[in-house]
Design goal:
The chain is an alpha+beta fold. The chain has 13 helices and eleven strands.
């Protein structure tokens, strides 16, 4: 990658002319050809010249550009040390079999006018356990040590593993079936009336559930009557144990008193951490409230993309697609973005404030510090540092570390009121 030209435009924009050099480009074209051969395998073993003559060079160029420009763009942004406010606008320039050039128009972070960020004062919450804290801590401990029972008959609050298939006017509909679906009765995850009718089913039992889809639902189902055929495979009921001497010994403690003392000690640690977080956040909020900046819409949208991406990943880890979650919650992605907008604005303001401090304090992150952070994360997540570098590029991690050090400056110079 070579930056051929940098143009500073109006409204805090930069336009980079980026050249992808021959060795990288030719390798990407070769890989695109091998991929295209599989796509057009039914037409025989086409040579690259035959493929390009029949379908045009774009068939390879497009795939090779998509494979090469992200890394080239990332390297260019890092080389120029740019803080980008949103996704750059890209345009392909000269392109041939030897190399290509593209243009990236980049929105930069807005100008931030900081107020005071050192020697701020904030109240430090008192750390003590109330009777409510004590009762809550014990109940929380007991809920974390529930005993699973498997009754023959399901009640509200139980988790059932069910097969279900839905029918409208006798015909099955898309998305209306699943096998061994884990459903907590009373969770409200299914349409009104469904879970209540499943209650009372026995293991191995089958029944029909008749429901009406809400009028505010996906258009092809809204307001329609449906019948679901249900089969139950397993019922799980969580029983909260009692706080007894026997229970304490089962948990590895000599006595009930010793268990209670440990629960209280653990809750005091939590309260101390909450107090420190509240104090630190109060200091940071003063910095955010004291700065002057116009928030770019591109930065808010970028934060929203990140939040929704995290939710999508979380849903997939739970075995559910985001679209399924939104359908069950009667939401669109637009609703989700609107609901998450304030959270995105908070994250954007924090990002801008800490970035401004990092620039003001000339905070730098050495390669040694960067490597140490990757090693620490590698030990924490159980994946190699090299894999982490691919998932979290150095330019991103270096920026995050700068923000963390900027936050430390605010907190370490703060004073308790």
């Amino acid at each position: 990658m070579q930056i051929e030209k940098r143009e500073n435009l109006e409204n805090r924009q930069v336009r980079l002319t980026i050249h992808v050099e021959s060795d990288v480009w030719k390798k990407a074209l070769d890989e695109a050809y091998e991929s295209s051969k599989k796509l057009f395998a039914s037409e025989g073993d086409l040579t690259r010249e035959e493929l390009e003559a029949k379908y045009g060079t774009d068939v390879l160029y497009q795939e090779a550009v998509n494979a090469t420009y992200p890394q080239a763009l990332m390297e260019a942004i890092s080389q120029e040390d740019l803080l980008i406010a949103g996704s750059p606008a890209l345009e392909i320039g000269a392109i041939d079999a030897e190399s290509y050039t593209f243009y990236a128009t980049i929105d930069l972070y807005p100008e931030v006018k900081l107020g005071q960020y050192k020697n701020l004062t904030a109240p430090y919450p008192q750390i003590e356990l109330s009777e409510e804290d004590t009762v809550g801590a014990i109940n929380e401990y007991l809920r974390a040590h529930t005993i699973d029972e498997h009754p023959d008959k399901a009640a509200m609050g139980d988790q059932v593993s069910i097969d279900f298939e839905g029918f409208i006017d006798g015909a099955p509909f898309e998305g209306g079936n699943a096998e061994k679906y884990p459903l907590i009765l009373g969770s409200g995850m299914f349409i009104p009336g469904f879970e209540e009718q499943v209650a009372g089913i026995t293991v191995g039992g089958e029944r029909e559930v008749k429901v009406t889809f809400p009028t505010e639902y996906v258009p092809n189902l809204a307001g329609k009557d449906a019948v679901f055929k249900i089969k139950c495979h397993e019922i799980t009921r969580q029983i909260i144990p009692e706080m007894t001497e026997e229970f304490a010994r089962e948990q590895g403690y000599d006595s009930l008193s010793a268990l209670r003392q440990q629960i209280m000690a653990d809750r005091l640690e939590v309260k101390a951490a909450e107090a420190a977080d509240a104090y630190n956040n109060a200091l940071i909020q003063q910095v955010i409230d004291g700065m002057e900046v116009e928030i770019p819409e591109a930065m808010v949208n970028s934060q929203l993309d990140g939040l929704i991406g995290e939710l999508r990943h979380h849903m997939q880890a739970q075995g559910m697609q985001l679209d399924q979650y939104l359908e069950a919650a009667h939401l669109t992605e637009g609703d989700l973005r609107a609901h998450s907008r304030e959270q995105a604005l908070v994250a954007t303001r924090y990002e801008l404030a800490m970035t401004a401090i990092a620039l003001q304090e000339n905070i730098t992150i050495s390669e040694k510090d960067l490597d140490a952070q990757y090693q620490q994360m590698s030990a924490l997540y159980g994946i190699s540092a090299e894999q982490l570098r691919q998932q979290l590029p150095p330019v991103r991690l270096r920026h995050d570390m700068k923000l963390a050090r900027a936050r430390d400056i605010v907190v370490e110079t703060g004073k308790k009121a």
